[in-house]
Amino acid sequence: MIPKELLKKVRRIHIRTLHMADDLFAGQYHSAFKGRGMEFEEVREYEPGDDVRTIDWNVTARAGRPFVKRFREERELTVMLLVDVSRSQAFGTDTQLKRELVAEACATLAFSAIRNNDKIGLIGFSDQIERYVPPKKGTSHVLRVIRELLTLTARGRGTDVAGALEYLNRVTTRRAVVFVVSDFQTSGYERAMRIARRRHDVIPITITDRREVELPSVRFIDFVDGETGEFVTVDTSHATFREEYRRRAQSIMESRRREFRRMDIDSIDLFTGRSFVEPLQRFFHARETRL
After folding, report:
1. CATH number, domain at 17?
2. CA 128, 129, 130, 133: dihedral to nearest 10 degrees?
3. Residue 160: inside a domain
4. What is the C-alpha to C-alpha distance for residues 267 and 279, in angstroms, rounded to an integer?
5. Which residues, listed in sequence order, are joined to residue 84 by a DSSP beta bridge?
């Protein structure tokens, strides 16, 4: 039986993100992602303004007047959510944990997908594959994905983005839109991402808590790495230390963005405690204007 508190969380996310998918991202999702190609639909008589390249010369010759071919876009896509469910996702110093932000952002993307008759699938990973939910359509399927994101407890301690991408290539044979959702507090995934990029439309979504970028001046803070268990105490009262911490975090983030750009990959940065709507809208708008 599903606990009542979980049902309430799923219901809140359902109502909030369904509204966003319908009102805020209506049309943008459709424009941002191309279908698989063009499928022949019918032949009709030529009308002024039709592209002469679409003339069906065989039918035209038989009929004695020009006819053109009509095509429609094959819109059905497969959207895969590759979601980091490692222990670092339980971190959050504002009003929101990383995993809660992940659930809301992924739910919005999932509802946008099914509104466009696309399939949605999930691969939850840590340093191993924790859960695979094959792509399907429908609201009930999206609600299952949300429940998995809220409740999935990782058996592994670390994060292996490369392993998740390699698993994706084994289970997904057709081209897919792939959102890789992680804090990317790991390395060695670049080669696997380049390989996946050749087959799929890969979009990394980086999840960051503001305290991973900037520390407050509150004297001593105990830090525990959720993945390694490493423990350290730091004195945040020193302005020099806080500034060095900020510079180093910013440098890591910018280096990651540059690497994604070198791969010709669009990326999205999300922060706990902030709305994810504007970053997603910027992404969709950039895609729409470029395609």
Report:
1. 3.40.50.410
2. 170
3. yes
4. 10
5. 125
Contact 193, 187 (CB under 8 A): no
Which phi and psi (to 5°) does residue 184 adopt? 55, 35
C-alpha to C-alpha distance for 262 and 276, rounded to whole angstroms: 25
Residues 249, 162 within the same domain = yes
Phi, psi of 60 (to 5 degrees): -60, -40
For 75, half-sphere exposure in the C-beta direction (CA atoms, 13 angstrom radius) is 12
- Give me the residue label for tokens 């301690």: 157
Does 258 reside within a domain?
yes
Strand, coil or helix: what is 44?
strand
Q: Which residues contact 156 (CB under 8 A, 6 or more apart)?
A: 86, 126, 127, 128, 130
The candidate with the shortest Cα–Cα distance to 33, out of 103, 101, 115, 104, is 115
Q: 205 is in which domain, residue-wise?
A: 4-31+75-218+233-290
Whether residues 26 and 43 share a domain: the answer is no
* 143 neighbors 190 (Cβ within 8 angstroms): no
The model scores a pTM over 0.85: no
Neighbouring CB atoms inside 10 A of 256's CB total 17
Which sign does the torsion angle of CA 111, 172, 152, 87 carry? Answer: negative
Task: Give 75-124 pLDDT, tens digit per residue.
Answer: 578 999 999 999 888 777 767 888 889 999 999 999 999 888 899 999 99
Residue 208 in domain = yes
Residue 44: beta bridge partners? 68
3-state helix, strand, coil in the chain (%, to 5): 45, 25, 30
